[in-house]
Amino acid sequence: MESKPFCWILLSLLILSFFVSQTHEKKQGSQTLVYLHNSTLKKSFGFDTSFFEAIDNFNETSVNPQERLKEKDRIERLPGQTQVNFSQYGGYVTVDKSAGPGCSSLAYGAMQELGPFRVHSDGKTLYKNKFSWNYVANVLFLESPAGVGFSYSNTTKDYSTSGDRRTARDNYVFLLNWLKRFPEYKNRDFYVAGESYAGHYVPQLAHTILFHRDVYQIKKYCNFSSNASTPSRECIAASEAVSKDISYINLYNIYAPLCSSPNLTAQPKKTSVS
To answer: Where is the signal peptide (predicted)?
Structure first.
C-alpha cells in the first residue's frame, strides 16, 4: 500500500461496521437524532455551550489488545463491487467494555459523498467513484456517538445520555485502539474533518488529541515553580512540541496575517474595519 496522508472523515455524526439491516439503521439513527434534539433542551444532559475541556482522567486500560483483529476486518469484496487495487477494512473497535446523534458516515459519507463507491439505482450493486478521496489519502469513516449508523452500545441508556464530552472521549479511545490495530499509520500525516454537528466533534477530538499529546505531558513532567530543579528530558520534549504547534501564531493577534519575509514590506496594506 503506497504511503498516503491519513485522513479521518467524521461526517454528520460519528465506530464502524457493515452488514446491519437498513431498517434497523433508519430506526436507530432517527431515534438518536431525537435524543440529540431533546437533550439540547435539558440542562441535565451533556450538551452545553461552555468552554470545552478535554477529559484528563483518561484510563489507559481502555486501550485493548488488537492482535489479529486487523485481518478479521479486511473486506474481500462488497456486494456488486468491481475489481479494485486498494484494501478495505470494516469492523468494530471497542471504546468501553462496560458500557449516540445523526446520519451514518458510512451510508452518506462513504456511499454518497467522497467514498470509493456509489450505489447503482438497483440498490444492490456498486460502481467506482472517480472523485473519491482515497485516490490521494487513506480514508477512515467513523460513526459516532454509539447508536449512529451501524455503531451500537451494549448499554441501552448510552443512547439517551450521550454528550459532547463523552463522544470526544470515545472517539479518542477509538483512535488509540484503531492505531494499535493498524500501527503502520502511526507516523502518517493525520487530518480530521467533518460536517453538520461534527463541527462540534471534530474540534473537540482535535483538542483532546493535542491535550494528551502536549498539554497533559507538560502537566505530568514539568515543574515551573521557582525552586524547581533542571527540567527533565520529558519536560523539554513536551515543551518543544507545544512551541512547534504555536510558533506560527501571533499571540497578540491570532487573526493577523502571517509575514514570512525577514524584511518589512515597502508599503503595508491599510487596515480595514469592514
So the answer is: 1-25
Helix, strand, or coil (residue 76): coil
Task: Give kind and range of the element (H or E) at residue 126.
Answer: strand 126-128
pTM flag (> 0.90): no
**Superfamily of domain 6-202, CATH level 4:** Alpha/Beta hydrolase fold, catalytic domain (3.40.50.1820)
Nearest to 77 by CA among 19, 9, 149: 19
Digit-by-digit pLDDT tens for the chain (274 residues) are 555 665 555 443 333 333 333 444 445 555 655 665 565 555 555 455 677 777 766 666 677 788 888 988 999 888 888 889 999 999 888 776 543 356 778 888 888 899 999 999 998 899 999 999 999 999 999 888 878 878 888 888 877 777 788 888 899 999 999 999 999 999 898 999 888 888 888 899 999 988 888 888 888 888 888 887 888 898 998 888 888 888 878 888 888 877 777 776 666 666 666 5
Handedness of CA 104, 109, 110, 111 (dihedral sign): positive
Cell output for 272: 480595514
Q: Count of alpha carbons within 13 Å of 223, Cβ hemisphere only?
A: 8
- Name 117's bridge partners: 128
Q: How far apart are CA 202 and CA 10, in angstroms?
A: 7
Place of cell 502511526: 186
* Angle in degrees, 0-180, between the axes of helices 164-181 and 198-210, rounded to the nearest 10: 60
Q: What are the structural domain ranges in the chain?
A: 6-202
Taking the C-alpha atoms of residue 53 and residue 202, their distance in angstroms, rounded to an integer, is: 14
